[in-house]
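Review this chain:
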Amino acid sequence: MDRQALADFLRRHREQLQPGDVGLSTGVRRRAPGLRREEVAQLALMSTDYYTRLEQQRGPQPSTQMLASIARALRLTADERDYLYRMAGHAVPDRIAASEHVAPALQRVFARLTDTPALIISNLGETLLQNALAAALLGDHVGAAGLERYEPYRWFMHPDEARSHYPREDHARNSRAQVAGLRAAYATTGARSQTGMLVAELSRHSSEFRELWERQEVAQRFADHKILLHPEVGAIEVDCQVLFTEDRGQALLVLTPAPRSEAEEKLRLLSVLGAQRFSAPAERP
């Protein structure tokens, strides 16, 4: 671990970012250029003290999970992320398998989507980023641990919870879409990858998955007209549009209701309910 090189790199990239680049308001006049340390820490889902110690060359060696969060917060390119890993004393992740690194261009688009549900997912169905409205509508899955990170795993291993957002008549179609998307990822990464491990685990425990896997269907299908169920506001009809990265390893999903529709009113109500729910962290132990 090269503490000085790591600290200099973090500080330089923090100073190059402006609040508007990451979806933050400019606010009052700033004394120093770029983002504040606490803002980077907030974006990276870590404590300000931890991030500050890294910039001051006195922090412990960060884990690969921490580095991935910092790379997302600082909007690093793939080359810059690789450098970050090396200076922190870690091997550089495989660019195909390392789906947790969100493409900066995709992040910039995502940061501007505040009035409609939006999320960025990997080709394995891992939620990498989601705005508050998407979390209120679909549940908060960012930062989930282990195989629980992946939507196909939740869909087949915890069907009562995972499928509660969809009408029962759509379950079979969604099951096929989950498996077809997973097979597309499998073709890219191979049997010895995280995808292969996920396929093996689902094959062992889900007869439904095994049957669908044998169909050999391959597709990455997200653009669709969906009906989503929410326990407080009911059924919401949305159109799902998708923006892929060049290698199709990640996708930005945007869920939009028809203008002046009942669904638009329900999403407006949900944004209020979600804001109230997420603004009370002090009540948690």
User: Anything to note?
Assistant: Residues 3-87 form a domain with the 434 Repressor (Amino-terminal Domain) fold (CATH 1.10.260.40). The CA atoms of residues 186 and 195 lie 6 Å apart.
